[in-house]
Write a structure and sequence with these properties.
Layout: H1 2-29, H2 31-46, H3 54-70, H4 72-76, H5 84-102, E1 109-110, E2 113-114, H6 115-146, H7 165-180, E3 191-195, H8 203-215, E4 224-228, H9 238-252, H10 263-270, H11 277-284, H12 291-304, E5 309-313, H13 321-333, E6 340-345, H14 348-357, H15 363-367, E7 373-375, H16 383-398, H17 405-412, H18 425-444, H19 453-465, H20 467-475, H21 477-480, E8 481-484, E9 489-492, H22 503-512, H23 514-517, H24 524-535, H25 538-547, H26 562-565, H27 567-570, H28 580-586, H29 595-604, H30 608-618, H31 626-643, H32 656-666, H33 669-676, H34 691-697, H35 699-711, H36 716-728, H37 737-757, H38 760-763, H39 766-776, H40 780-793, H41 797-804, E10 805-808, E11 811-814, H42 816-821, H43 832-838
Parallel strand pairs: 3-6, 3-7, 4-5, 5-6
Antiparallel strand pairs: 1-2, 8-9, 10-11
Length: about 850
């Protein structure tokens, strides 16, 4: 809102500031005179009305209302919050306030308010009513189109971005110099300049600058400028008549022309045009005279003029082949006319292709018959790069990226050879239309804060450079990209890795295989082709930038992450994706009571993967402590078990302990928590940190974890599995080696206490046996000792022996089926049950069935 008002004020001031300054200057210069005029004349007029007259005050009040009523339709459709009209209203009010304050005027008034003040009061009330009842509604209706930014229009301009002013002056001075030298030339004739530059370099803009310099600036009255536009003609045969008509019209502004000067010559030229009905009628309108007579008459007149005639012909390379032929023939047929200077703007390559299609075998040699000077623009140091940066900077400001603008631009410039994607200013304009269209879609769908702008720029650049590659990424990304499990991101498939390698890696590769990769360049054409090919591979570097390159600006919304990929092509989120803002809300202390409802809603809408992805990328921004994140993840897994147990295995029901284990693996929750509890001090290889130093830094997190274990308010399967996974690389965990060992044993102790409370059915349920396997891996040896003590005192001693142990070859060992169920290795702790039985207070000798390994 503020940005829009600021923009409207700026536009209003820029459009009206000259007139306002003039009025202020007049007021300052003639202040005394105006002051006296108001005192003696205008104030005296008001004295005809009585003071404190309500009717007079009402008339003044209704003046603005009456004006608004007359202009009701235009005011009702006003969309700007601040327009030129508002500027003038405030300006007039300021002037009135100034006069009233500085002048000694005794204005008549009503209720202490001068009659003139009532006009402004009526004005402000009218503006308020218009805004509230009409303009506000209109702005809501117009918000759809106002929410977008206009396309960049690729139009020629007199703006001298390339600093060609001196070049232009040199060209015009050369024309004047050549004209002045006509007396020293025996047979002066027309001079043709070919402005031979590629499409989009700025040929038309340059001609606009030429036209402006001749008609408005220092070359005015020194050169006659004729703008001939053959592409406006409907048929090739009308080009000739249009040329002489334009020439006649322009010369007629400066000289008295002999009657019918061009008519006969025109009829002779038209005879060479195709014999259509139009040309037949044209030929019949003119009496035939000798060509030499008409020619000499024109020559005589043109020799007498006092300034050169510069005829510009633009976009010749855009004409149809037969039209190109007519234009070239026209230049040829007027080539011996003195003091004519043609400046033809055309891409020489396209011009030659047209002539080849016309059957001309050597078009470049043929062109030499028509062209006296082939002109190219001078080089400009980094102008295109500067223009690109300025326009990009402007675009990012328009989309309120001011805070991160420099970071985005610097990131974009990390794309190798990115400037090579744009050969002309026109290329930049066309690309920015693609980019800003995508930005508008993103902004309209209110996900601007959930994309990486540099990535959107890069994918838009691929759309501009190689649309088929863009379609593959949009529709069949699996053909080009693969999922990297280690980084949890998309990367270039190994099949195509070499194509999109970073240039530095390619150079290293080339040095390794220099002999095989050496290319033989045989002639100049091969050199040009090779250089052009290298400039056309920017899209390869862009793909590398998106999916492979190490960058500082990578965040959770980058395109290389599966959860974000879709939005860069659809400009909105999938139904299964959630915003980072929602996840941050769940992990905020203010949202503590509702987090379970929110997580449940996420699971019901199939947004689990997106939920984990956002935690992984944004956990460092959460208000919640690390232990609260752990608790809410435990809630998430518990709700998954409740709502979606079929995700793990749809074909058969599974035990809760196994489902929890599967969910932790499927969503990599253990890795996520390992990242969250990562010791950042260890990320510096050169740093040698003591346990005490690390402890001081992470004391609060360790205390939180300790309190959580002591509460026993955790899901034992979840905490056991997570803590075990973290302990695999415990040297990198902020929790500390000693703490992890202590907490592992505490969980074992807590579980043994719970186990003693279970009834027989609960104790030997499959779910509990799997839970035992999860608790046991925390600290196997400690678990064995604890479990031995539990067995000795357990009322289910014989049941444990019967279910868990087998006896074969005078050896007690695991029951094989249960060993598999508990996921214990065959070679581990094979004498545990022998030790339990030996040290047990239970004196009854168990009787084993050797055939099946079970107690009878």
């Amino acid at each position: 809102m503020f940005q829009e008002i600021k923009k409207n004020i700026k536009m209003a001031v820029l459009s009206e500031y000259k007139l306002i300054i003039c009025i202020l200057a007049v007021l300052i210069v003639f202040w005394k005179i105006i002051n006296m005029l108001i005192s003696k004349s205008i104030v005296n007029i008001t004295e005809t009305a009585a003071d404190n007259n309500m009717i007079v005050a009402l008339i003044f009040f209704l003046c603005s209302v009456f004006i608004a009523f007359i202009r009701f339709d235009s005011l009702r459709s006003e969309t700007k919050i601040f327009s030129q009209r508002h500027l003038w209203e405030f300006f007039l009010f300021a002037i009135y306030s100034l006069f009233k304050r500085l002048g000694n005027f005794d204005f008549y008034s009503y209720l202490g308010i001068s009659y003139f003040s009532y006009s402004f009061i009526g004005l402000f009330i009218t503006e308020f009513v218009l805004y509230y009842f009409y303009r506000k509604d209109f702005q809501i209706l117009a918000s759809l189109h106002k929410a977008t930014h206009p396309f960049f229009v690729d139009a020629p301009t007199t703006d001298d971005s390339y600093d060609r002013k001196n070049f232009l002056k040199t060209l015009l001075d050369k024309i004047l110099s050549t004209f002045d030298n006509r007396y020293f030339v025996e047979n002066p004739n027309a001079f043709t300049i070919l402005l031979s530059e590629s499409f989009g370099i700025g040929k038309t803009s340059f001609l606009f600058q030429v036209k402006k310099a001749i008609r408005e600036e220092e070359y005015k009255n020194k050169i006659i400028y004729v703008e001939f536009r053959p592409w406006l003609c409907e048929k090739p045969e009308t080009i000739i008549t249009e040329f002489f008509s334009v020439l006649h019209q322009e010369l007629d502004k400066h000289f008295v022309l002999p009657k019918g000067m061009f008519s006969s010559y025109l009829s002779l030229l038209v005879e060479n045009a195709p014999n259509t009905y139009y040309s037949f009628m044209l030929k019949s309108l003119h009496k035939k005279r000798s060509l030499s007579e008409e020619h000499d008459r024109i020559m005589k007149f043109l020799k007498q003029i006092d300034r050169p005639i510069l005829i510009s012909i633009d976009d010749v390379d855009r004409l149809h082949d037969d039209e190109v032929k007519v234009v070239l023939n026209l230049i040829r047929d007027t080539a011996d006319f003195p003091n004519l200077f043609y400046i033809v703007a055309a891409d020489k390559k396209n011009l030659c292709l047209s002539m080849e299609r016309l059957g001309i075998k050597a078009p470049e040699r043929f062109l030499k018959k028509f062209i006296n000077f082939e002109c190219l623009f001078p080089a400009n140091d980094a102008v295109l790069k500067q223009l690109f940066r300025e326009k990009l900077d402007s675009v990012l400001r328009e989309y309120s990226c001011t805070g991160s603008k420099d970071l985005i631009i610097n990131s974009i410039l990390e794309i190798d050879n990115v400037i090579n994607a744009f050969e002309t200013p026109r290329d930049i304009v066309r690309f920015l239309n693609i980019f800003t269209f995508a930005m508008d879609c993103i902004e309209r769908n209110e996900i601007m804060n959930e994309i990486n702008v540099a990535d959107l720029f890069a994918i838009s650049l691929i759309q501009y450079l190689e649309v088929e590659l863009y379609k593959i990424l949009r529709d069949d990304d699996g053909l080009l990209l693969s999922y990297d499990d280690s980084t949890k991101s998309l990367s270039i498939s190994s099949s195509y890795k070499s194509v999109f390698d970073h240039p530095l890696l390619s150079k290293i590769d080339k040095k390794t295989n220099e002999k095989e990769l050496h290319t033989v360049i045989s002639d100049t054409n091969d050199v040009v082709a090779d250089v052009s090919a290298k400039k056309q591979i920017v899209h390869q570097f862009v793909v590398c930038f998106l999916f492979d390159q190490q960058r500082k600006d990578i965040n959770g919304y980058s395109i290389r992450y599966v959860d974000s990929y879709f939005r860069y092509f659809a400009f909105t989120k999938k139904p299964t994706q959630i915003s980072g803002a929602k996840v941050r809300t769940i992990f905020s202390s203010a949202h503590e009571e509702l987090h379970k409802i929110e997580i449940k809603d996420i699971i019901l809408h199939g947004q689990e993967s997106s939920f984990i992805h956002n935690i992984n990328k944004w956990y460092h921004t959460f208000d919640d402590s690390k232990i609260e994140i752990l608790k809410k993840l435990s809630t998430f897994v518990a709700l998954l078990c409740e709502l979606k147990p079929e995700v793990v295995s749809a074909d058969k029901p599974q035990q809760r302990a196994l489902i929890i284990e599967s969910f932790i693996e499927v969503y990599d929750i253990h890795r996520l928590l390992a990242h969250i509890y990562f010791n950042q001090l260890k990320s510096y290889p050169s740093a040698i940190l003591s346990q005490e130093e690390t402890g001081k830094r992470y004391e609060e997190d360790r205390n939180d974890f300790d309190k959580y274990i002591k509460t026993r308010k955790y899901e034992v399967n979840f905490i056991s599995l997570v803590l075990k996974k973290i302990s695999i690389n415990k040297e990198y965990s902020l929790l500390g080696d000693d703490n992890i060992e202590r907490w592992s044993r505490q969980i074992v102790d807590n579980y043994i206490l719970e186990l003693k409370k279970y009834d027989k059915e609960h104790t030997f349920s499959r779910n509990n046996l799997y839970t035992i396997s999860h608790v046991a891996v925390l600290d196997t040896y400690y678990w064995i000792d604890s479990f031995k003590d539990y067995i000795k005192e357990s009322p289910y001693f014989m049941d444990w022996i019967a279910r868990v142990a087998s006896y074969e070859n005078n050896m007690c060992d695991w029951n094989e089926l249960l060993r598999q169920q508990l996921n214990f290795p065959h070679w581990q702790n094979h004498e545990i049950w022998k030790q339990i039985i030996t040290n047990s207070n239970y004196k009854e000798t168990p009787c084993f069935n050797g055939s099946n390994g079970n107690i009878k």
